[in-house]
Amino acid sequence: MKFAPTALPGVARVSLDRFVDARGFFARLHCPEEFAAAGLPFAPQQTSLSRNDAAFTLRGLHFQAPPYDEAKLVRVVRGAAFDVVVDLRRDSPTYKGWIAATLSAENGEALLIPAGCAHGFLTLEDSTDVLYQIDRMHVPGQARGLRYDDPAIGVVWPAAPRVIAPADLAWPGLAE
Fold first, then answer.
1. Closest CA to 119 of 42, 39, 11, 41
2. How are beta strands 46-52 and 80-87 bridged, if at all?
3. What's the sign of the alpha-carbon dihedral 38, 43, 47, 50?
4. Does residue 114 form part of some domain?
5. Which member of 30, 68, 119, 132 is catalytic?
6. Which run of H or of E encompasses 36?
7. Would you give the end-to-end CA distance of the chain in angstroms?
8. Cβ neighbours of 65 (radius 10 Å)
9. How far is 79 from 54, CA to CA, in rounded Å?
């Protein structure tokens, strides 16, 4: 795997080393030793899948409330998505900053997202599946979120969402 830092401390792009032959390819999606050697220790405890039927489905911006906040490795295994991370760590020099990456089954890239950051995505293709590896077990009742279009953050999405859950539309802005 290859690890590339982003403009947000602790957020890294993770690229696959593909072993290609006549059958296709083989790649490791996570290896604790490789992550630790890159200075990014990450040990998933839970794996989840988000199935999204339609292009331009928006999910987010989501996070877990402290002390239940979680780190996650997010990867698209079918289709493509515009993936966004927002830094909500008040002591971070990039507090309220955000980065985005296009993750796709084709490019095989993932984002490692540390605890204290919000995450969301906009699918770019029909039938997009997003795989999450999470470093702690989910704690019911601790889910939180921010409006995807909060002007205090200013995420520039590549298109308007066509499908979005009422719960995601009801999240407050950062100032609230």
1. 11
2. unpaired
3. negative
4. yes
5. 132
6. helix 32-37
7. 40
8. 11
9. 10
68 is catalytic: no
Dump pLDDT digits (tens) for 89-130. Answer: 999 999 999 999 999 999 999 999 999 999 999 999 999 999
Name which of 154, 69, 54 is nearest 117 in CA terms. 69
User: In terms of residue numbers, what domain contains 79?
Assistant: 42-169
CA dist., res. 129 & res. 121, Å (int): 11
Active-site residue identified among 30, 62, 68, 95: 62
Q: How many domains does the chain have?
A: 1
19-52 pLDDT, tens digit per residue, is 999 999 999 999 999 999 999 999 999 999 999 9
Tokens 């979120």 correspond to what residue?
145
- Length of the chain equals 176
Any domain includes 90: yes
Whether 2 is covered by a domain: the verdict is: no
> Is 148 among the catalytic positions?
no
Q: What is the pTM of this model?
A: 0.95
In a domain, 108, yes or no: yes
- From residue 148, give the alpha-carbon distance in Å to each of 30, 32, 58: 29, 32, 8
| CATH number of 75's domain | 2.60.120.10
